[in-house]
Specification:
Blueprint (H helix, E strand, L loop, with lengths): L4 H9 L5 H12 L5 E6 H7 L3 E6 L6 H8 L20 H5 L7 E7 L2 E10 L4 E4 L2 E3 L2 E3 L26 E6 L4
Antiparallel strand pairs: 1-2, 2-8, 3-4, 3-8, 4-5, 6-7
Amino acid sequence: ITGASNFVNRMFEACGRFQWAREFLKNSIEAGATRVEFGIEWQAVKSISAYRRTIIDNGSGMNHEELLRFFSTLGEGGKKIGGVHDNFGVGAKIAALPWNPEGLVVISYKDGDASLIWIVLDESSGDYELVEFETSSGVRCVVDPTQVDDPDCDWGAIRPDWLTDNGTIIVLLGSG
């Protein structure tokens, strides 16, 4: 998201308390979720003593292309902005990214297929960027979570039993 960090930070400063939670909940509801859980990613607690927030839903999920399109831009929603129970006009990315410079990981399941994308802040440029993963078919920004080599977390194991064929997992990595 090149050149947008000043915009993101200004919009973030205008957010109300827990705006990130409202935005993610609204996204889950709009995706048809019947279950949404806000919790902790426990692998990082055990391995590095970091309590990472999670938002998990059983909504429609996103495939590889949808995930890349949605998380490589700002303002993708294009929805009418309304009152407190409608769309808020800020967006989950803007409400969450500034206080999560270590990243925001999204794992989405659609028709049983898993896709992972990871957004981080490049401190040298100030831009939000997608992590590039080395795969057998080249460098990719969206991968199967089981392909991510991370000593602190098995990203393929985060999926709860109740999330079956469709749904999305957001992991907020914080600032350290």
